[in-house]
Amino acid sequence: MFLIWKGGFQLGEILKRMFRNSNEEPQTNPLSVLRQAIHGVTPGIAVKARRVGGSTHQVPIEIGSTQGKALAIRWLLAASRKRPGRNMAFKLSSELVDAAKGSGDAIRKREETHRMAEANRAFAHFR
Questions:
Q1: pLDDT tens-digit series, residues 49-71
Q2: Cβ proximity of 75 and 104 under 8 Å
Q3: Which domain does 11 fall in, by range?
């Protein structure tokens, strides 16, 4: 959770406004939306570059829950920064709602990572 701690007061204000924006939609609990978004974006497997015999292979590796959640938070923040919008709180709340529903750039990034791991399954024995 170090990714969220860094930023201090300004980050606290962004999160407070984001929860307020999420709360405007009827029958949504902002914390459950946040949990669903992080859970939906968290990857179970990733690829890592390994140099074997003069060539570099993308080797699929299984990642733990802590590292997966850190990646998910990083992807959510990056996707929300890319979004067009008024301010970071609005962009982040929009991305979280989209991720909780199963769409958005962060979900696309997770699917792309899983596709890469599946495509390079033949190199799994290089772990």
A1: 989 888 998 999 999 999 999 99
A2: no
A3: 2-126
Task: Please classify residue 17 by burial: count the beta carbons closer than 10 Å to its beta carbon, then call 0-12 exposed, 13-18 middle and 19+ buried.
Answer: middle
Beta bridge partners of 61: 46
Indicate the angle between helix axes 30-41 and 105-119, nearest 10 degrees: 20
Q: What is the CATH number of the domain that holds 101?
A: 1.10.455.10
Confidence of residue 26 (pLDDT cuts 50, 70, 90): low
Strand blocks (E) in 1-127: 45-52, 55-62
* Residues 47, 58 contacting (CB under 8 angstroms): yes
Domain count, the chain: 1
Q: How much is the pTM? A: 0.81
What are the helix and strand counts (H, E) for the chain?
6, 2
